[in-house]
Amino acid sequence: MKNVLIVGTFDTKGHEFQFVKELIEKRGLTTTTVNCGVIGEPLFVPDITSETVAIAGGSSLEELKLKNDRGLGIDVMMAGAAKITKDLYNQGKVAGIISLGGSAGTTIGTYAMRSLPVGVPKIMVSTVASGDTRPYVGEKDITMMYSVVDISGINSISNHILANAANAIAGMASFDIPELKVEKTLLAATMFGVTTPCVTAAREYLEEQGYEVLVFHATGAGGMAMESLIEAGFIKGVFDATTTEWCDEVAGGVFTAGPTRLEAAAKAGIPEVVSVGALDMVNFGAIETVPEKYKNRNLYKHNASVTLMRTTVEECSQMGKIIAGKLNMATGPVALFIPLKGVSAIDVEGAPFYGPMEDAELFEQLRENMNDKVEVIEMDTDINDPTFAIAMAKKLISMIEA
């Protein structure tokens, strides 16, 4: 019988969790309840007590109560819930996981969910699900459901929301996923709107040669998801044409993938071809959200929700050094492709972000800081020229076959 893990603060939201628990069990599944509440007593007896969670998180319930530090309590229960969740999954006891909460409950619940592999059903009913959910979701397949009203009692609105969530996790956990026999070598590629022609041409060529290509949108979460799958051993080669997430990491944009971007393939030792796609742009939201200090920079309204900012010579210099350092970490074959006539669709002559000085500085820092392990290939094209894309694809194939 399939089992659903229910994680949350049963001292403050016991009625709501009991409601969800009973609905899931009515669908013929079993449940395991994990109490992460610190202060009060749970409405019902949980399968795993908050004391057990606290110990798993490196403390004790008595200590947390004595210190009465909300932040500390959340940190400990996050760690404990994640450890217990992962242990139960490894024992074959988690077919799905669900949680309910406000900001604290969402932080604890989704942290536990992120300890599980991609593919395990995960539902978080949250009061903060209509805002920026990236801190909670990360690179995992967590389904965030907005609670509409606060999670405070069963009423004519929450009755529908919580029932939908319970039925959803029950349905997800009940049915087996058909096994897909993947006989093709699995590759990863990174793409942005302004590098789409390059990646599309390469993907089509690689698929014609018998490879399967997963394309990741380089929006921060996309890069993180790709790196996570590389670390998990799914990916056998990387077509990393679009390293734009480094612009946001360096200049404070909204699409950063963090300071470890470009490290997974290097550490895994798998073949990788890398380029400088969209290193001409930092990403922000609507134009009114651009930080005041950047208001006089070269801004480009991509659409109503996205504003792009051209990177400067100084930022390009910094990124060149960083990317060179990441590629120098490679334990397997790696090649860097440099398109001398432009790094994106809007960094070509006559386009809004055309910047020969900025690009020249980027390329120079890459050349100067790269070690001999990295093969550097320069082509007198822009990044979206089909000959550039196919050259990268052919190079990746030759590395894999070697």
Indicate the proportion of strand residues.
Answer: 15-25%
Examine the secondary-structure arrangement and name the CATH architecture of the largest domain. 3-Layer(aba) Sandwich
CATH superfamily of the largest domain: Uncharacterised protein family UPF0261, NC domain
Oligomer: single chain
Structural class based on helices, strands and sheet pairing? alpha/beta
Provide the spatial order of strands within the biggest beta sheet.
7-6-8-9-13-14
**Model regions low in confidence, pLDDT < 50 over at least 5 residues:** none
Alpha-carbon distance between the termini?
47 Å
Coarse morphology: elongated
Q: What is the overall number of helices?
A: 14
Task: Give a quick rundown of the structure.
The protein has helices at 14-26, 50-56, 61-67, 70-90, 103-113, 134-137, 158-174, 196-208, 221-231, 245-251, 264-268, 313-327, 356-369, 386-401, and strands at residues 3-8, 30-35, 96-101, 122-126, 143-146, 186-191, 212-217, 237-240, 272-274, 281-284, 299-301, 307-310, 334-339, 374-379. The chain has 402 residues and is an alpha/beta fold.
